[in-house]
């Protein structure tokens, strides 16, 4: 096998000579998918365990996705100075360290300690995503780069589905069933009993994260002893950040892609995080049952990802992106305005429309950037910060009173989904502009 991906001139989506490195790097997509979706249900769990508001509990997502936002540029500079492989190794180390910090966080029973653990964990994920996404794009010809990234990203929701399963069957199902009102009474009348219940529930959360930390450590060892080929230009480790940033800032297709990515991640996290609250508040479901709908949404997401990757052979990325964004907009409107089971079916269906979005926006924005893609990738990973800002906003809306529209009353839960609806409008505009304004540049 060649030591440099630049030597491979094959037009295959995945050239056979780099198949093993591709499989190894693709495994990372599943690993951060697991982290994302074992964490989403914890927003509802911490709210009940620690008796905090929707806004406060959604700070889990603020800390989780804040790590992406803060660490993306440092990660890109590290990768530029060293290599993709060293970026992956540091990412796995931080990922594992964050998981193990759940143990002292549970001992102290402090919410802020859990937030720090999530933040460190996702500083590691930021290194992984900043490394793996552009590295996969470089594993072959530029003509097949978007399809290759879509294929690799197809394994991300598989990890997500496993994370959802663990969250449902190994965490939510084993939490104490004492309802929130009874916990508040205990907190006032028998603090020791309340603390005992909270301690039991936090220990239930800690276990899977500790096991995850061990798995990530094993992955760290495997990557450390494995040989990964260099990508084109990777031997040039000079950091020319200012000229690169100026070029990126002047590239409208790229900058609009960063904005679209921020709103996409916000929409994804809101739809998946608050599906539990939607099921509980609107339909009276148990959290475990509501999480089952989240798992169905992820199965739809996985299936749609493979279908959309195939469709990219016949349709332009921008055109398909805008079409799916319009579909997501319509289904989100159904989530808001349609009561009962049909409303949650619409929310589940949104996942079919979201499946294509992250890797397609990513591939479109980076295509043609050459070595600038390393720092450009960091901007798109920073855009994941949309996932840290929007969920707390949605949680705050859920804490408010019902909204009177004149012709109907909207519960605060359903009204909160106006935020992802706005996100899909912005994504649709980017898809349209990609095909009709920037069409000659990708």
Structure write-up:
With 442 residues, the protein is mostly helical. The protein has a single domain, classed as MFS general substrate transporter like domains (Growth Hormone, Chain: A), CATH 1.20.1250.20. The chain has 22 helices and two strands. It has a two-stranded antiparallel sheet. A hairpin with a 4-residue loop joins β1 and β2. α1 (19-39) runs parallel beside α9 (156-171) and α9 (156-171) runs antiparallel to α11. The relative contact order is 0.15. The model has no long low-confidence stretch (mean pLDDT 87).
Percentage of β-strand residues: under 5%
- Structural class comes to mainly alpha
How is the largest sheet built, in terms of strand order? 1-2
CATH architecture: Up-down Bundle
End-to-end separation: 30 Å
CA radius of gyration is: 22 Å
SSE arrangement:
Layout: H1 19-39, H2 42-50, H3 54-57, H4 59-81, H5 84-100, H6 102-108, H7 111-137, H8 145-153, H9 156-171, H10 180-189, H11 191-225, H12 241-250, H13 252-273, H14 275-283, H15 287-311, H16 317-337, H17 341-354, H18 357-366, H19 373-382, H20 386-398, E1 403-404, E2 409-410, H21 412-415, H22 418-436
What would you say about this model in short?
With 442 residues, the protein is mostly helical. 76% of the residues lie in helices and 1% in strands. It has a single domain (12-227, 239-441), classed as Growth Hormone, Chain: A (Up-down Bundle), CATH 1.20.1250.
For this entry, give a set of tags.
Growth Hormone, Chain: A; 76% helix; two-stranded antiparallel ribbon; 22 helices; mainly alpha; 442 residues
